[in-house]
Amino acid sequence: MKVPEEPCQCPDCLRFYREHDRLIREFPTLRKQQEINWAALQSFRTLCGRVLEDLQKTINSNSSNQSEENFQEGTTEKKEKSITQVISDLENVNAHLYSIEALMERIFDVKVPDEVEDKFREVAGELAPDPLNIDRLRLNRLLHQTPDLPDK
Ligand SMILES: [Zn+2]
């Protein structure tokens, strides 16, 4: 018999599962998922765009200083190259975020009737119950006492 593979339990994955469940628990309807995801995308874009702007300013003022001082060699130039690389990476991130925004706008046109929003809530409760919920604590205890589960 094949033992079903256990989900990875490394700290990063555990943090991800917790965050995943929390987002379902706290935003259990289509409407709320739309809002939180929109807000997350926009905050990502705002922050990223602002950092990009600052880096571009930095590199512009650096290069004008540098031509005035007739190119101090070495470290400044090397540092600037890596900043150029970072700027191009961030520009890519921003371009992707922009595309995602265009796609998301279509998702956010969708509205569903209240009955369906109730269904969302119901399923959210099943997928990600309150971790401190007494039923869940009981279930966890049961699972941990099941003898045929591999000890880890
Ligand atoms: Zn992992």
The total count of helices amounts to 5
Average pLDDT over all residues: 84
Number of strands: 0
Number of domain units: 1
β-strand percent reads under 5%
Which helices and strands occur, and which strands form pairs?
Layout: H1 11-26, H2 30-68, H3 75-107, H4 114-127, H5 134-145
Helix pairs in contact: 2-3
Protein architecture, described:
The protein has 152 residues and is mostly helical. It has one domain (11-137). The protein is 75% helix and 0% strand. The chain has five helices and no strands. The chain has helices at residues 11-26, 30-68, 75-107, 114-127, 134-145. It is elongated and about 65 Å long. Bound molecules: zinc ion. Zinc ion (ZN) binds next to α1. The site of zinc ion (ZN) has 4 residues, from α1.
Comma- or semicolon-separated keywords:
75% helix, binds zinc ion
Brief description of this entry?
The protein has helices spanning 11-26, 30-68, 75-107, 114-127, 134-145. The protein is built from 5 helices and no strands.
